[in-house]
Specification:
Blueprint: H1 3-9, H2 16-24, E1 28-30, E2 33-34, E3 46-51, E4 54-60, H3 69-72, E5 76-83
Antiparallel strand pairs: 1-2, 1-3, 3-4, 4-5
Helix pairs in contact: 1-2
GO molecular function, one term: rRNA binding
Protein name: RQC P-site tRNA stabilizing factor
Domain RNA-binding S4: 1-64
């Protein structure tokens, strides 16, 4: 499944266009490698996303073509969630 579609369906990022923009700016890694919006996501992959002053790392547990809100959270498990102070930037 494409990275931008996974982020939208799992509801990590609400819109696919935003997910594409974040990926294309080099803020997402899959298994430690820089990822584009078209990168392939598989079960077991670690996805690290940089949002402003927050970094979210999740492990892909399920892939679905579409989901209900309750099922979206089952598509991933949070590995870590860290905040960086603006003083460090």
């Amino acid at each position: 499944m494409r990275l931008d579609k996974f982020l939208k369906i799992s509801r990590i990022i609400k819109r696919r266009s935003v997910a594409k923009e974040v990926a294309d700016k080099g803020r997402i890694q899959i298994n430690g490698k820089l990822a584009k919006s078209s990168s392939d996501v598989k079960i077991g992959d670690n996805v690290k996303i940089q949002f402003g002053n927050k970094t979210l790392e999740v492990k892909v547990t399920e892939l679905h073509e579409s989901t209900k809100k309750d099922d979206a959270e089952k598509m991933y498990e949070i590995v870590s969630e860290t905040r960086t102070d603006s003083a460090e930037n």
